Structure formats: structure tokens, C-alpha cells
Amino acid sequence: MSYSQPPDVTIDGRGSRVVEPSFRITTLPGIIDSVKPSKVPSYPLLVFQQPTNITLDQIKAAEIETSDKLKQLYPFYAKVGMGSGIMPLGQLVYNSTRSKGYHYGVTLDHISSFARIKNRDGIVYAPANYDRTMASIHGKVVNNTYNLRGQIDYINNGFHYYGIPNDTIDKDQISQRIQSVGGSFNYTSDFGDMEIMNYSVDLDYKYSFSKSPFEDSLSEWKAQEHNLNFKTKGWYKYRSETFYATIGARYNHYKFGIENEILLPSAIGRLIPNTIIDLKPGVLTQLMDNKFKVDVGFALALDIAEENKFYIYPQAEIKYSLFNDIFIPFAGIGGGLKQNTLGGLSSMNQFINTSVSLHNENNPYDIYGGVKGTLSKRMGFNVNASFKKITNKAFFRIDTLEVYNNTFEVIYDSLNQTSIEASIFYQLDEKLKIDGLARYNSYELMNYAFAPNLPILEFQLRGTYNLFDKFILNLNGRIETGRKAIVYEPGDDVIEEDEQYYINLGPIVDFNFGVEYKYNKRITAFLQFNNMFSQRYYSWYNYPVQPIQVMGGVSVRF
User: Fold this and answer.
1) Which residue, 1, 97, 243, 268, is most buried by CB atoms nearer than 10 A?
2) What digits encode the pLDDT tens for the residues 58-97?
3) Up-side HSE of residue 345: CA atoms within 13 Å toward CB?
């Protein structure tokens, strides 16, 4: 396609080209908006007042003890008294006063009785006089890196085998005196708590010996015993764990015969040496701000006697604190090998025949568990149960080889024991303190139907009350039921079980009440009522105790 444009065209025309005159606009430019803003309404503030209630809680007034920062110490303490039935008592104590580096002291104690003892039927028993004297010297050195302690003891216990319902017996024929002298030593390092090895060393020695028997044929015979215990422990704390180990040795040498005479195996008498080597390693873990604790380890014991015996025992315990120590559940298992000695057995029953057969008690396991805690800021509790087994458990029964049947021999049997225990305590400041305990025991023996002299039910009660800081009242007592003793023939009130004869020892009801009156800070008078219900119960078979006994005296500090 193509287009063509014609040549230029010229048009002639006529018109008016007048230019209008200009003028200046005096107004300023502005925006013309058709939408006008609405007026914002204003509302007045409403005045509303909420009533305020104020309640005041009763706050206990603070107690301030207005006393010296350091109370005066007196180096000497003396206590003297006299009881019914001619029963003198005396105590003298000397202690060093305040010192940063050392402490030492001496203690002397004596009590004796010349009272007569009757049974429940009013029958007077053989002379029951006794006297007990104890002397002790102790000392302690405190250093920045260690503690050092030592003590020397002497005990003299004279008594009579008075378990004979006949007061015409010559007291020299039934007298006995067991004495002991020994000492203990302890060294404990103190190099710090974290990542430093600390250790302690303990050494104990005791020599015990008895009076010679009255019989002419045995006039030079008596019991002697050397007992030596050594133990060293080391522990190392790293973060939340504490690693520890204990190594020790126990040696006991018992002899009944003529002094300074060597006893051969075929000779008449007893010669019983016994050595036990101990090893106990373990680790203690504490987590969650020490609320959770686990202690795990084991114990090894090597019994060196006629034939070497090796024992291993589990050692474990776990406990956890709930609700800021309101409830603390715990459980554990333990065990060990106990070394029986003449001194240990006579402390349980002083009326034993000093010619004894000694065997070690083996406790393969002791399983326990329970809950303890606090019910309030003044009251706490403990409930637990345990089950343990002991082989070669020591019991006591009347020795029929004696003329008067008034001494006890030691017998051994395997024992399974189950115990359920509950205790509670209450404390009101320093004014009132009360605690009580109840325990149920169940026994199962291999060879005997009943556990001789062991109670089935036990109750204990203790209380102290401070009245105006002038009178101190204290009460303690115990009740035990279910005890039985072995006898050898049928008779009144004798129980026959599996062709064995037992007799009920009756319940123990023993309550003691005491009053102390503080004349001043240095002088105090006391009055004590022992066995206040005057129960003539039997502590052992044919051994009734003294009924109500009243003792009074004074104590002085100077």
C-alpha cells in the first residue's frame, strides 16, 4: 500500500488576537477536602473507691537471753548422795577450761549397795551387795590439720551371785569381782573437704580379769582376757562422691586357768585366741543438695581361729528427703562378724560363769527400711522394720554344774529375728522434751523353741520438763513382756515345748522419776526415785531386782 500527500495548502483567514491583561491572585493555595474530621467526644472519669481491710497476725514475742557471751566454766564438779538400803554414791570430775588447742580431764565414779533383796513372795535372797568404781583420764589436742584423742580407763565391778532364795549363804562363797584396765587412741586428719585424702587411726586395748573361785581345788584359777582392736580409715571426696576404705584387725586372747601357766590342748581349762581381719571399701554419693544419698560397698572378714573362715557381707543404704525433710524414706542391707569376749558378755549379764566358751557371731544379712521425718517444727517420728539372721547368737541359761545353780553359761544357736518399731518425739523449746518408742520382736531359733531372755514387746518413755529454770523434772521408764528362761525340769508355771522346759519371767515395769533444784549456777540438789512402782521383777531367772529405791544428794561446781 502507498499513500500520497498533496502539496502544501495555504489558507487565508481573518481574526482578533487581543491578549487580556494579567492580574495577581492574593490568596494562598490550600487543600480543599470534602471529608471533615469528626469531633472527639470526651468522657469524665468515674471515681470508685474499694474499701481496704487490714488484719493483724499474732506474732510470738522474741526471747532474748541476757547473759554473758561466754559463760564462766568451773574446772571441778562433785556429786554426792545416799540412797535407801545404805547406797552411797560419789562422783568427782575435773576438766580443763577453755582452750583452742587442747582439753584434758579426770573422772572418778563410785556406787555401792548393802540392801537386801526379796522376791514377789517375800522370801529373802542371798546377800546382794555390790560396788562399782570407775576411773578415767582423757585428753584431746586440736590442730588446724589434725585431732588427737586419748583415754585410759579402770573399772572395778564387785558383786555377788545372789540368785539363791536363802539368806544364810556365806557371801564370800558367792562373791565375784571383774576388773579391767585399758585405753583408747584416735588420730584424725583434717586437710580439707574436697579432693584431699583424709584418714583416721583408732587403737583400743583392754585387759580384763576376774577373781579366783571360792572352791579350794580352783583357788588359783581365774579368767584373763586381752582384747586389742586396730582400725584405720581413709576417705577422699570428689564432687558429689566420697570414696572410703577401712582396714582393721581384732585380736582377743581369753584364758581360764592358773595364772602364768601354759595350757595345752589336753589340759583342764580354756585357752581361746581369736583374730579377725576386716576390710570395708565403699562409696557415698550425695545429690540434689544432699537430699538423695546412696552408700554402697561391701565388708570382708577373715576369721583366724582353729580354721580360717572367710566372710563377705553386702553394705548398702539409700535415703531421700521429701518436702524439706518432712518425710525421709530409707532402706538398706548390712551385716558383719561380731567378736564375742568375756568383757562384752559380762556387760550384758554379769552373773555368767567366767569360764565361758567364746564363738564369733556371724550376721550374714540385716535388711531394714522405713520412713522418718517431722510432723511439725516440734514433733518428729520414725517407723521402720528389719529382718536379720545371726548364726552363733549368744544366749544365757542356768549353769547346772554349779552347786547353787546361781550362775549362767553361754549357749549358741542360729536366730532369725523380725522387728517392727515406731518412735515419736516432741520438743517445746527448752522447756519440755518427750520421746517414746514401741517395738515388736519375733524370733525363730534352730534348736530352741523360744529365744531365752529376749522380749517380744518393748516400750520406752522419756521426758524432761524445765520449770522456771529452777526445777528440772525427768521421767524415764520401760516395759518388756514375753521373756522366757530355760529350766531343766517340769514344775509350777513351767511351759513344755518340743520336750524343752521354759518359764515365764514376767513383765518388766520399771519407771524412774527425778527432781533437780538449782539453788544457783553452782549448787544443785537432787532427789531420785528408782523403780517407783516397786516392781520386784526378774532381770534374769532367779534374780529379782531391788524394789523402790530413793536417793538424794547435792552436786557442786567449783
Assistant:
1) 243
2) 777 777 766 556 778 889 999 999 999 899 999 999 999 8
3) 28
